[in-house]
Amino acid sequence: MNLNLKKYSFNTICLSFIALLFSACSPQATFRIVEKPITWNETREQLSLQYLRERHGLDKEQATISPQMVVVHWTAIDNIEVTFDVFDSPTLGGREDLTSASNLNVSSQFLIDRDGTIFRLLPDTTFARHTIGLNYCAIGIENVGGPEAPLTKAQLKANENLIRYLRKKYPLEYVIGHHEYQLFQETELWKEADPDYRTIKTDPGDSFMKKLRKNLSDLNLKPIPTTY
Questions:
Q1: Rounded to 5, what percent of the chain is helix, strand, coil?
Q2: What is the arithmetic mean of pLDDT over 49-68?
Q3: Dist CA 200 CA 8 (whole Å)
Q4: CA 67/CA 136 separation, integer angstroms
Q5: The pLDDT value given to residue 96
Q6: For 195-212, how does the pLDDT look when each residue is reduced to its tens digit (9 = 90+)?
């Protein structure tokens, strides 16, 4: 082997070693949840207990849930601070389609920003009003975005990571989009006192849910009902 070849081989080995070392030491994406609690006070607690009793037929001492599913939403608002402010108030205003059922404000346990940052608005098992008929057993994940601001790849990955985290903690059987909630009307999970109280939802759409379910296929979640 001549001198130049020896020098080339040595340099190649050094560069390979440096690249391997850099790869091993470079920061990797870490799953984190940022605590950003919305207001939980006596008013919200009592309205939540009332909702559980009057809408779901559950008389409880604390406004808690037993998670069996995750419901994925979009906010239809493209700003996380505005979204937080909407959820923060314990009481709901200006939504006749919802206040007819309860003055409890809508909310979710989690909120994911467009860059994939995950915020926890309420403890995992604290009641939140986000899906008719299923609130008592569903953890809600809101995603900042909507028809004019499609959900991002970072949000898709964050939803996957968050659901995997939640599945390790709770016996989750379903992951559904908000637009799919009425498919559960004929199942044992459905609890809504008023047979006419429904809202039409499109979030987060079939495309996003198809991608999310594909990424979660190894969890062997139950398929959603196909008709109602």
A1: 40, 15, 45
A2: 98
A3: 67
A4: 8
A5: 77
A6: 999 999 999 999 999 999
| Token output for 176 | 């559904």
Query: End-to-end distance of the chain based on CA atoms, in angstroms?
Result: 76
Q: Percent of the chain at pLDDT above 70? A: 87
In this structure, the dihedral spanned by the alpha carbons of residues 176, 180, 185 and 190, taken in order and rounded to 10 degrees, is: 30
- C-alpha to C-alpha distance for 207 and 191, rounded to whole angstroms: 28
Q: How does 166-183 read in b/e, with b if 16+ C-beta sit within 10 Å?
A: bbeebebebbbbbbbbbb
Chain centroid offset of residue 156 CA: 10
Strand 110-112 relative to strand 33-35: parallel, antiparallel, unpaired? Answer: unpaired
**Nearest-angstrom CA–CA distance, 68 and 174:** 7
CB contact at 8 A, 127 and 64 = yes
Give the pLDDT confidence of 115-130 residue by residue, as tens digits. 999 999 999 999 999 9
HSE-up of 49 (CA within 13 Å, CB side)? Answer: 11
Q: What is the pLDDT of residue 228?
A: 66
